[in-house]
Write a structure and sequence with these properties.
This protein is mainly beta. It has two domains: 28-133, Jelly Rolls, CATH 2.60.120.380; 165-348, Sandwich (Jelly Rolls), CATH 2.60.120.680. The protein is 13% helix and 57% strand. It has helices spanning 6-27, 230-242, 254-260, 284-292; strands spanning 30-39, 43-51, 56-65, 69-75, 79-86, 88-95, 100-108, 113-122, 135-185, 197-203, 208-209, 213-226, 276-281, 300-304, 306-311, 318-325, 332-379.
């Protein structure tokens, strides 16, 4: 029998103690999670834990109530270690090759379930026995580069060009007589009861716009006179001659001159034994109502031995000059005149030589940097 010195014996005993503790630690599982939980139909439970490099993950899972669920173990970010549709997993082991966060996901597609999940880890060495299995959020920044081309100003050029402009070549004012006649209006009478109403229809020329010609009615006017109209109309003509400077170069009647402002008033009888009630009506239905003696709507109305007026807004369509004989014994004669004033504008194309300063560009290649952020789960240690 060989006897060893006491000092050597103590060293050997110490080494044996250390090695026994090492292998004991390396083989003894450490509890990470002991979970019992209820899952409703169409729900998912997720648990995250960190594991150290060299660990062996040991998982036991069991349904204590209900049928199968989908059980997955995922090494983040997306490496699936197992995916099983099962009711029980016993002593399932996963080798950890680098320190990572692992996801334990249970998905229940139908019915209520009661689940039991136990997670343990077997550390590789004494150094990782006290490894913290918690995790934390970490913000990662991703940088991408986009290549593009952009115009870059390098100078200016002077450009000569011809511009065609449509300009007014001429403007002409003309007059169109719409009605000029004497209207006989019967009396209601004591025996025959004639209709003491009459009307004159006035249709205005239609406005037209073409590429080089534009015609529009700028206004129309009417004049009424009971009885002898010639003398009063002659007085209007004489007044027009005296104010000819206001409408120089225009061939207009007193009505046309009244429309454009060449004269401010027209002559009508001051008084006569017979008056006429008159109304300017804008549509056929109201005209028919007037002729029947029913209620109607008019633009303007009055009565007297004569009347005149002009319209600068109502310049399109058909109007009716309606008249009523207030004398129940005798018919009356009413001279009615109506005319429209038309403006005709003719255009022409005129060329102008122009110059302009235009910028000069070249294409330059550039790079645009875009930084985006995202959060990921990482081990605390």
């Amino acid at each position: 029998m060989i006897l060893m010195p006491v000092r050597i014996q103590k060293i050997i005993i110490l080494l044996l103690f250390i090695l026994s503790n090492y292998f004991l630690v390396a083989q003894e599982p450490i509890h990470v999670a002991d979970l019992s939980f209820k899952m409703n139909s169409n729900s998912t439970q997720e648990y995250y834990y960190s594991f150290a490099k060299g660990d062996v993950i040991v998982v036991d899972f069991e349904l204590t109530k209900g049928k199968n669920v989908q059980f997955e173990i995922v090494e983040l970010p997306n490496q699936i270690k197992t995916s099983q549709f099962t009711a029980r997993i016993f002593n399932y082991q996963v080798n950890v090759f680098s320190t990572k966060v692992y996801l334990f996901r249970i998905t229940n597609s139908s019915g209520n379930k009661m689940c039991s999940l136990h997670i343990k880890r077997i550390p590789k060495s004494q150094e990782t026995v006290n490894f913290n299995t918690g995790w934390q959020w970490k913000t990662l920044y991703d940088t991408t580069y986009t290549h593009f081309k952009e115009d870059s100003l390098v100078g200016h050029d002077t450009v000569h060009y011809t511009e065609t402009v449509k300009e007014v070549a001429s403007r002409e004012i003309t007059e169109e007589m719409l009605f000029d006649n004497t209207v006989e209006i019967k009396s209601i009478g004591w025996i025959e009861h004639d209709n003491p109403r009459a009307y004159v229809e006035v249709t205005l020329p239609q406005n037209k716009t073409e590429h080089y010609v534009k015609k529009r009615v700028i206004g129309w006017a009417f004049w009424l006179c009971v009885g002898d109209a010639n003398s009063f109309w002659s007085r209007n003509k004489n007044a027009l001659v005296k104010s000819a400077s206001a409408i120089a170069g225009l061939s207009l009647s007193p009505l046309g001159a009244f429309v454009v402002g060449g004269v401010s008033d027209l002559v009508i009888p001051d008084q006569t034994k017979n008056n006429v009630f008159w109304a300017i009506i804008a549509n056929n239905d109201n005209k028919n109502a007037f002729m029947r003696g029913d209620s109607y709507y008019s633009i303007v109305q009055n009565n007297g031995p004569g009347a005149y007026g002009k319209f600068l807004n109502e310049t399109q369509g058909t109007y009716y000059i309606c008249m009523y004989n207030e004398n129940i014994h005798y018919r009356i004669n009413v001279n009615v005149k109506a005319s429209a004033v038309i403006e005709t504008i003719t255009y022409k194309d005129v060329d102008y030589e122009r110059t302009k300063i235009v910028p000069k560009y070249v294409k330059v290649s550039k790079v645009r940097r875009h930084i985006s952020s995202r959060q990921v789960r990482v081990p605390i240690e």
